[in-house]
Amino acid sequence: MDVDAVVVGGGIAGLVAALRLSEKGGRPVVLEKGTEDRYLCNTRVAGGAFHVAHRDVADDPQVIRDAIARRTGDSARPEIIDTLAREIGPATQWLRSKGVRFIKVGHEPYRKHTLAPPIATHGVRYWEGRGGDVLLRTLLAELERCGGRLLRGTRAEHLTLRNGACVGLHATRDGQALEIAARAVVLCDGGFQSNHELLREFITPAPARLMQRNAGAGQGDGLRMAREAGAQLVGMDRFYGHVLAQEAMHLDTLSPFPMLDLTCSAGIVVDASGRRFMDESLGGVTMANAIAAQADPLGAVAIFDEPIWNGPGREYLIPANPTLVNNGGTLFSAASLRELAAATGLPAQGLETAVAQYNQAVDAQRLGDLVPPRNGGAHRAWPIRTGPFHAVRLCAGITYTMGGIAIDADARVLGTGDRPIAGLYAAGCATGGVEGGGTLPEVAYIGGLTRSTVFALRAADHIARERAAVAA
User: Fold this and answer.
1) Domain with CATH 3.50.50.60 in the chain
2) CA 88, CA 103: separation in Å to the nearest integer?
3) H-type helices in 185-334, by residue range?
4) Which residues pair with residue 103 across a beta bridge?
5) Mean pLDDT for the chain?
6) How far, in whole angstroms, is CA 198 from its chain's centroid?
7) Which of 137, 159, 133, 154 is closest to 35 using CA atoms?
8) Cα 127 from chain centre
9) Fewer CB near the terminus (10 Å): N or C of the chain?
């Protein structure tokens, strides 16, 4: 097979890149390893909010850039931040021009542009006929109308390199070898969240004890191929996810919702010894990373009281209270902390000491004196003193990995010395260098759908310019 470009992955980044190339006169082919008509990928099951660092995509670019910079510190490449902030508005309008619809959902400003129709708030197939599912079907229809192709059941295996440039790849389709020659390859197959070997290398000592809060398709094939080709990898140790009830590991009704983030942030999270081990004020994404980093990621327990359960526990579109219990989860409740410890298997003295120290710090407004200190985030600490007292066993739900292939502002894959590898591009959650936050304590979530769109367009535009230059 001989094409202008081969795109690996049929999620939002892959279809955007291929559609943009098609409308510019190129001949792309998209390789998607899923075989079904509605093959599962993270885009299809996503919540659907288009935002950048929880800023609306229509905000002033400088406002968006400042929001990214506050979250990432100096860990993100400045040209990447500038490009994302400047181009997400036009990129969203480009999606509209292709038939993608947006709607305002909820009162939060960052939900002003949510994929329409919005996802359902219940059911295992909450995404079907909604949000990312409709987005992908819309983009694919446009791609095929423009002459582009998507090959299902096709998995990329190895890049073809010649004189330091990428000139195609080898794949398998329905068990048969397929060699594709191309002027460019665009890696858009998402993160490595479902690859236990890579998770163990970069994220957690016990990958099987994380909840796969995702489509289950992210094996990191693109990352592996780029690594073999000499690409830089950046920011590999952090992921986007949320705190879930531990029973989500075997109950589909408890993932991806309800999230326990707000309940945990208002109270405390302890390990099997009854001790706190994180700054709960930093929010759910950071807490999920802290739980995953434990020797036993299934040893964490949230501790809170009745006011928290009926306050922060009832917040968010799909609140923990009452969704947790209604969906089959266990809420441990007791009249005293000692009884709660007995019900959960925690040591009573350790739990009582942790709660007493926490309450004293809340009362004295000296949360920074706690070990570990609680003073880095925006979430308010509520005292835990009004029965009944509650507990929920937790797990870390991983949605996508934040690190990946290093790229420049044109989505060209960077090798040694920050030199682009000719003919090789990457976009979406296969890439790193934006989210994570580096040395900052709070894990910086920026937004997977939006950065996927912007850099898929950038990759396609650069390939089109290179193609035109050769033709001239």
Assistant:
1) 2-237+402-471
2) 17
3) 196-202, 221-228, 261-266, 284-292, 306-309, 320-326
4) 114
5) 96
6) 16
7) 154
8) 16
9) C
Write the pLDDT tens digit of every residue in 328-366: 999 999 999 999 999 999 999 999 999 999 999 999 999
pLDDT in tens, 2-37: 899 999 999 999 999 999 999 999 999 999 999 999
Preceding peptide of 388 cis, ω within 30°: yes
The C-alpha atoms of residue 97 and residue 109 are separated, in whole angstroms, by 23
**Cis peptide bond prior to 109, omega within 30° of 0:** no
Q: Is the dihedral of CA 138, 143, 144, 150 positive or negative?
A: negative
Please give the span between the terminal C-alpha atoms of the chain, in angstroms, as a whole number. Answer: 24
For residue 364, the model assigns a pLDDT of 96
- What stretch(es) of the chain map to CATH 3.90.700.10? 239-398
Say whether domain 2-237+402-471 belongs to CATH 1.20.58.220.
no
Parallel, antiparallel or unpaired: strands 268-270 and 239-245: unpaired
239-398 CATH fold: Flavocytochrome C3; Chain A, domain 1 (3.90.700)
Residues whose CB is less than 8 angstroms from the CB of residue 247 and which lie 6 or more positions away in sequence, other chains included:
254, 328, 329, 330, 393
Condensed to tens digits (0 to 9), the pLDDT of residues 104-142 reads: 998 888 999 999 999 998 888 999 999 999 999 999 999
The per-residue b/e assignment along 275-292, b for 16 or more CB within 10 angstroms, e otherwise, is: bbbbbbbbbbbbbbbbbb
Tokens of residue 5, six digits: 């470009």
Backbone angles phi and psi of 253, in degrees to 5: -70, -10
Cβ-Cβ contacts under 8 Å for 310 (sequence gap 6 or more): 321
Of 252, 254, 278, the residue nearest 267 (C-alpha): 278
Which phi and psi (to 5°) does residue 64 adopt?
A: -65, -45
Pairing of strands 55-56, 51-52: antiparallel
Q: How far apart are CA 171 and CA 167, in angstroms?
A: 14
Separation between Cα atoms, residue 459 and residue 77, nearest integer Å: 17
Q: Counting beta carbons within 10 angstroms of the beta carbon of residue 24, is it exposed (0 to 12), middle (13 to 18) or buried (19 or more)? A: middle
User: Any residues with CB less than 8 A from the CB of 326 and at least 6 apart, and which?
Assistant: none
Across 166-205, b (16+ Cβ under 10 Å) vs e yields bbbbebeeeeeebebebbbbbbbbbbbbbbeebbeebbbe
Distance CA 449, CA 110 (A): 13
Kindly give the residue spans of alpha helices, DSSP state H, lying in 98-130. none
